[in-house]
Design a protein that fits this description.
This protein has 222 residues and is an all-alpha fold. The chain contains ten helices and no strands. The protein is globular and about 55 Å long.
């Protein structure tokens, strides 16, 4: 079980801390069945190409709507697209740190944390679980579209494609750092950073596609 120790919580529950603080040891081969229901088990897995294709089409559709049904200028559209990409890196960092590594101080939270992320730490080389299941991803993207539409109006049709391209970039980086050897160039740092998170200390280096927020929030391994 991979956990993110919360000092304040464990200060008041040391006995629970003692029983739940052992991290799982990663296995470089194999996989694990999460659901007894074969349909749910199948839906929990995906080939990396599936979400990448889906969100390329989703983003293209939103941009097409922006061009044909809004009055956004090219410069504003580009700006909103870039802001969407940067905003995704912030969301990625915070989800990874505070949701994927939540303190599992109840059985329900423990099961939830393991299902959404702990299993990945236990079997980091399982290529079928390196991306969120497409059905869940599409549902979340559509909910974000509806929420951002209310807040941002027409700007959402340029902002959300940037967000989804940022997510696609994250998926690509995450897949490559687990599936391939690191390159001999500046991108090697991404492999090193994520390797530290998986094999050295699961409470640091939460950014996968970018180390930006680890530097800002002080969670970058020195």
């Amino acid at each position: 079980m991979v956990i993110n120790k919360r000092q304040g919580f464990y200060k008041f529950a040391p006995e629970l801390h003692k029983t739940m603080s052992n991290e799982v040891k990663p296995h470089n081969t194999g996989t694990k069945t999460l659901f007894h229901n074969p349909v749910l088990e199948k839906l929990s897995r995906t080939h990396i190409s599936v979400p990448l294709i889906i969100f390329a089409l989703y983003s293209a559709g939103l941009l097409y709507w922006s061009v044909t049904h809004t009055s956004l200028s090219v410069s504003i559209s580009v700006l909103m697209f870039l802001l969407g990409m940067v905003f995704f890196t912030w969301v990625e960092y915070n989800l990874h740190r505070y949701v994927f590594h939540m303190a599992p101080y109840t059985k329900a939270r423990e099961k939830f944390q393991y299902t959404i992320h702990g299993v990945h730490h236990e079997y980091p080389k399982d290529k079928t679980r390196l991306a969120m299941p497409p059905l869940l991803s599409i549902t979340i993207a559509t909910i974000l579209l509806l929420i951002f539409r209310v807040v941002m109006r027409d700007y959402v049709f340029a902002f959300l494609p940037g967000f989804l391209v940022g997510y696609s970039g994250y998926l690509s980086v995450h897949y490559m750092v687990h599936a391939f050897q690191p390159p001999k160039n500046f991108l090697k740092a991404l492999w090193i950073n994520h390797g530290i998170h998986h094999y050295k200390n699961g409470e640091v280096v939460f950014g996968v596609s970018s180390p930006l927020w680890d530097y800002i929030y002080g969670t970058m391994k020195k």
